[in-house]
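lol ok so funny story. i was supposed to be doing the assay writeup but got distracted and ended up predicting the structure for this chain instead. priorities right. anyway since i did it might as well share w the group, maybe its usefull for someone
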Amino acid sequence: MNTQRFHKKTLQTIHMSLAILWIYQGLIPKILFQANDERRIWMLQGFNEHTALNLMQYSGAIEIIFGALFLTGYKTLALHYLNIVGMLGLSFLILLVDPHYFTQAFNPFVMNIAMMALSLTAIHLLKYPERNA
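and the output, tada:
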């Protein structure tokens, strides 16, 4: 396989992975199943249960839209920078609201670092294609 094709396949894999992760996180625990932990995060911020459920669904819809952007032709550096900022922001929010989540087996640290690493790799491939081709 030539280097240019390998470069393109690598970016496709990154974009598909980020799309799946964002869409899953928006759809499964926030919209379809309304996970207790997701609701609890909103309630710990002072929202009542009804408002927390609504905010959870809205945030799920936003995550699905964001994930879908990775499936479109809109695969710019800005999208990856936004992903990194989002992952850092969400991690910081959870750390402030309830740091206990970071001690669990499946915790925000693991997924957020992995998603940031994917975007950092994509940024490198997008910024310096001549070094990778």
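The chain has a mean pLDDT of 93. The chain has six helices and no strands.
back to the writeup now i swear
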